[in-house]
Amino acid sequence: MSDRDFVHIGHIRDVSEVLRLLDELREDLNDAKAPTSTIETIDDLRVEARKPKPSKDITAVLMERLADRGLGEQMRELEKAFDVLF
Questions:
Q1: Domain spans of the chain?
Q2: Long-range pairs for 44-49 at CB < 8 Å and ≥24 separation?
Q3: 40-59, pLDDT tens digit by residue?
Q4: What is the CB neighbour count within 10 angstroms for residue 58?
C-alpha cells in the first residue's frame, strides 16, 4: 500500500471544515428560499468534497455557478477551505 491509500487525519479535518461551511451555506439558502438549482449545486459540492481526491476542475465549475448568487464572504471562506483539499 502506498501513502496515497491512507486518509490522513489532517485531510479529515479539512473535509470536515468544507462540509461544515457547505451545511451553513445550505441552511442560509434554504432560509432565503433559494432556487433548487442553487441548493443542488451545494449538494454537488458536498459530494465532491467527500471524495478522496476532489477534482479541482469540477469544484471550480460548481463554485462558478454559485459566484453570482450574492454569497460574498461565505464563498471566499468556502474557496479557501476547498483549496486546502487540492
A1: 18-85
A2: 45/78, 45/82, 46/19, 46/22, 49/15, 49/18, 49/19, 49/22, 49/82, 49/85
A3: 999 999 999 999 888 999 99
A4: 14
Give the contacts of 86 (CB within 8 A, at least 6 positions apart).
54, 56
Residue 43 and residue 26: Cα distance in Å, rounded? 8
| pLDDT tens digits, one per residue of 58-70 | 999 999 988 877 7
The C-alpha atoms of residue 84 and residue 69 are separated, in whole angstroms, by 23
With contact defined as beta carbons under 8 Å apart, do 45 and 63 qualify? Answer: yes
